[in-house]
């Protein structure tokens, strides 16, 4: 099947070289193959697990669902900022992947029996207190090339922390700190604001860890919040939450009472 001509409507297409054009053509042919892939199939194809070499710590920790107060805080802020249609998301557990540069030889799995031991090893070998809360990218492109009749708040997203390990390991190497990547829920299966709730819960979990979490509490001044492509979008609403909660009464999150003002992540 011929590539979708809509790909050539981008202004940048006028300056594409032959190599770029071949990539775009291959992408269009892949997406518009027959039979037409479903959104779930496209998402699954984007989740490419990448191995982490022995120079890095890497482990995943599953976090309990955030408290009702955290969810209510998010929805109140959305309603205050702008009236939009959304589905109230279910509270759900989610995974975070920790990565850090290793200074000592890689031990065997028998030497690291628990996530708590893995965290202790990662924290002790970090050269910086910096903790990077990484939010992986997705793809607005699929809406354009698949011509899907999907509302803006249900735009398909894809990817995973596994797919972004080349980026997160590089961040750990360059900063000497710890990188934690959020495995947030994907749209349109779980539409807005489910992913934002997961990312907010992840940020709060760094400050106020659940008793079952492997990691210790992180100082607000040590948290940096970058995002890759689609993953950069939650940064703005998180700042809005910080702005709109300056006089908010304390909320409960698991065993913690969280007093505001809420911290603003660093760019």
Question: Could you walk me through the main structural features you see in this protein, from its secondary elements to its overall organization?
Answer:
With 267 residues, this protein is an alpha/beta fold. Helix 3 packs across helix 8 (235-244). The termini are far apart. It has a 5-stranded mixed β-sheet with strand order 1-2-4-3-5, with helices on both faces. The protein has 8 helices and 7 strands.
Name the strands of the widest sheet in spatial order: 1-2-4-3-5
**Taking all residues together, what is the mean pLDDT?**
78
Low-pLDDT parts are 140-156
Strand content: 5-15%
| Spatial gap, N to C terminus | 43 Å
* Principal-axis shape: globular
């Amino acid at each position: 099947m011929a590539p979708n001509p809509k790909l050539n409507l981008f202004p940048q297409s006028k300056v594409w070289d032959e190599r770029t054009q071949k990539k775009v053509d291959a992408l269009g042919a892949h997406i518009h193959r027959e039979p037409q892939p479903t959104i779930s199939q496209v998402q699954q194809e984007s989740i490419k697990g990448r191995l982490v070499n022995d120079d890095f710590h890497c482990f995943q920790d599953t976090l309990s669902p955030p408290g009702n107060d955290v969810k209510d805080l998010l929805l109140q802020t959305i309603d205050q900022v702008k009236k939009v249609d959304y589905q109230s998301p279910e509270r759900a557990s989610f995974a975070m992947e920790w990565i850090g540069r290793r200074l000592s030889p890689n031990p065997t799995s028998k030497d690291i029996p628990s996530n708590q031991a893995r965290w202790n090893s990662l924290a002790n070998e970090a050269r910086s207190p910096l903790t990077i809360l990484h939010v992986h990218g997705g793809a607005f492109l699929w809406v354009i090339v698949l011509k899907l009749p999907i509302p803006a708040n249900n735009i398909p997203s894809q990817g995973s922390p596994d797919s972004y390990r080349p980026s997160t390991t590089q961040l750990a190497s360059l900063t000497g700190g710890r990188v934690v990547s959020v495995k947030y829920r994907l749209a349109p299966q779980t539409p807005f604001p489910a992913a934002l709730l997961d990312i907010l819960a992840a940020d709060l979990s760094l400050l106020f860890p659940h008793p079952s979490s492997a990691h210790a509490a992180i100082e607000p001044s040590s948290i940096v919040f970058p995002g890759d492509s689609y993953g950069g979008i939650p940064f703005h609403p998180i700042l809005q939450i910080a702005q709109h909660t300056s006089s908010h009464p304390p909320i409960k999150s698991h065993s913690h009472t969280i007093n505001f003002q809420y911290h603003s992540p660093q760019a």
